[in-house]
Amino acid sequence: MRFDIVTLFPEIFSGFVGESLLRKAIDKRRLEVVTHDLRNWSKDKHQKVDDRPYGGGPGMVIKVEPVVECIEEIRRLHAEPGELILLTPQGERLTQPLVEQLAEFPRLILLCGRYEGFDQRVVDLLQPRELSIGDYVLNGGEVAAMVVIDTVMRLIPGVLGDEQSARSDSFSQENRGLEAAQYTRPRSYRGCDVPEVLLSGDHAEIDAWRQSQSYHKTLSRRADLVGSEGDSPRRPETNEGEKREPVN
Ligand SMILES: C[S@@+](CC[C@H](N)C(=O)[O-])C[C@H]1O[C@@H](n2cnc3c(N)ncnc32)[C@H](O)[C@@H]1O
Fold it and tell me: Fewer Cβ atoms within 10 Å of its own Cβ: the N or the C terminal residue of the chain?
């Protein structure tokens, strides 16, 4: 899968791309991440890409010409034209089901805004998918682009060490609710013990406990996720998780 990022601050991505799972996935050729500096498409001798808003008001607006010309050119860099995503707080909210859809594309082009955002004609002419990572305002689309890459890459085969891990996470296809509590050694710490069932070696009982934990945790923290059939965490056959481990 290939990600193209269009930004005014490509250097922001150097640490992100150079570390950890993403670096490994790039080295294994599962992923490709290419940044493009929008200023390279400026016609201004000072490489300006923004201007004052028509009608007045605070801040600056990113101009239409450099964005349209940049996107047209980078689309041609690869046989696959790619799905264009414009990061904006006004877009559709990113959720795990949407991340799963995005992971099906062979190429995503992520357009990062700054200042007051883009001239509306960027949207009118390029008709991107407009995406928000939440109901708050960031200074720029770069952090949002990292969120998209980070969430999508986990679903690309061969990127995670253990693919079961992504399948059982909170909000995943297997469980649209919240994941059950996890423990590791030591068995006991300052009077807090690991639930006995996890030490039992009985995998059927452990699965039932986790399912119950997940269901009750989701119900108490995110009741909005429980309800519509198919998209809900599964209702457990027993209430073991609730009885053994109070959910906080
Ligand atoms: C300061 S914001 C502009 C906000 C814009 N004036 C508005 O009110 O909708 C600058 C840029 O940050 C990015 N951004 C801010 N919040 C975001 C969010 N919640 N999700 C995705 N991108 C966001 C967008 O690319 C946006 O163009």
Answer: C
